[in-house]
Amino acid sequence: MEKAEKKSRTLKISIIVSVLLSIAIILIILKFTLDSKNVDQLLHATIRYEYFLLAVLLNFLTFFIWGARLMVLSNAIDKNVHVSLWKSTKIVIANLFLAGITPSMAGGEPVRIYLLNKDGMSLGGATASVLGERLIDAIFILICIPFALFVFRDRIDDKILNFGLLIGIIVFVLFIAIFLYAIKYPDKTKSFLTSIELKIAKLFKRKERTKIIDSIGREVDNFHNSMVFFVRDGKRAFFIGGVLTIAYWFTGFMIPSMLLLGLGLPPYYIESYAAQMLLLVIVMIPTTPGSSGVTEGGMFGLYSVLIGSSFIGVFVLLFRFITYYLNLIAGAIFQYRIFKSLTSFSLDTLTKQK
User: Fold this and answer.
1) Quick one: which of 2, 34, 112, 286 is 20 to 30 A from 129 by CA?
2) The total number of structural domains that make up the chain
3) How far apart are CA 288 and CA 101, in angstroms?
4) 331, 98 in Cβ contact below 8 A?
5) CA distances from 276 to 272, 281, 293 (A)
6) Which phi and psi (to 5°) does residue 44 adopt?
7) Chain-centre distance of CA 295, in angstroms?
8) Is 48 exposed, middle or buried (0-12, 13-18, 19+ CB in 10 A)?
9) Helices marked H in 284-325
């Protein structure tokens, strides 16, 4: 009971920190960008509310595209289980809550694995589906980075933003390298990760064998087996998943342009797509819960060079409301309907299924 209460308290703290940090950074941006002149510009701007509605609809559409990708990968891995589009979409929406309060959206993956397993998939198959999603996303981002850097090559003068991008690219490429290494040398990967965990355990004077060590081998094997499947037998599903990944991200990348049109500004389609690609690299760094504060700061730095400071605060507020707060609310509703609680699910829930 005490352990469950501790985990519930930790999760509640993550929720509070992520939301308050996001609100705080938005308020800071508004404070330093809104003055009487800017307020007057906003009041006299031609606001097109239909574009704001379209941005919301595009965000909801991404749920179904993501659900379609999860459905395709899951059905390809386990022929005996049919995951419908609506079922996979509900899983995706439910995962948004924990994804929104954990660094790099890592908390959403156990939710998707657990719910796929609950719907009849083997745990290994469910894990393979979710890891397949991650790999496709990684490939997509890696391909897009050169284009995004080319578009913004002469636009970014902010040292902090440039530093964030540099760190993000380094971390991202490092993860890709680990991905590839784990696929080719699973046994060496397990030995390497286990040795790191043993050193950490020794540093903290833990003599007993930790759960992390027990799970390292299992997770590396799951990852290796799932990637081998997609390379050998699941090429068609992997390709369709790739097409749906492009559709998913490009649909999401349209949201900022719709907001710009709603504010009476040029949509900057190409520049906005490039900005979103660079933002992905920044938010992939496991920093704050839900990348709160980091996302707002990144949006401010990337889009202020496009639209100036007059509308940037309102723009960041609208963007985060649609792509973060609405997702958090939708995820909370679906997760509560499934688990009857917002704080009951944890990694232990998944471990018990193993």
Assistant:
1) 286
2) 1
3) 8
4) yes
5) 6, 9, 16
6) -100, 5
7) 11
8) middle
9) 294-307, 312-320
The C-alpha atoms of residue 289 and residue 100 are separated, in whole angstroms, by: 7
Residues 6+ apart with CB under 8 A from 203: none
Residue 218 is encoded by which pair of tokens? Answer: 């299992």
| Spatial distance between the Cα atoms of 187 and 195, rounded to a whole number of angstroms | 12
Q: How many CA atoms lie within 13 A of 189 on its CB side?
A: 21
Alpha-carbon gap, residue 285 to 161, rounded angstroms = 13
More confident residue, 29 or 161: 29
Tell me if the pTM is above 0.85: no
The answer to whether the beta carbons of residues 33 and 309 sit under 8 Å apart is yes
Tokens of 348: 């232990």
**Residue range 292-344, pLDDT digits in tens:** 888 888 898 889 888 877 789 899 999 999 999 999 999 999 988 887 766 66
Length of the chain: 354
DSSP notation for 116-174:
HHHTT--HHHHHHHHHHHHHHHHHHHHHHHHHHHHHTTTT---HHHHHHHHHHHHHHHH
For 52-73, what is each residue's pLDDT tens digit?
999 999 999 999 999 999 999 9
Query: Does the pLDDT at position 243 exceed 70?
Result: yes
Residue with tokens 């799951």: 222
3-state secondary structure of 180: helix
Give the domain extent around 275: 2-352
Q: What are 123-141's pLDDT values in tens digits?
A: 778 888 888 898 899 889 8
In the structure encoding, which two tokens stand for residue 19, read together? 């939301």
Rg (CA), the chain: 21
Asked if residue 91 lies in contact with residue 67, where contact means CB atoms within 8 angstroms, the answer is yes
Most confident of 24-33, 40-49, 277-286: 24-33
Encode burial over 145-168: b for 16+ CB neighbours within 10 A, e otherwise.
Answer: beebbebbeeebebeebeebbeeb
Instruction: State the pLDDT at residue 19.
Output: 87
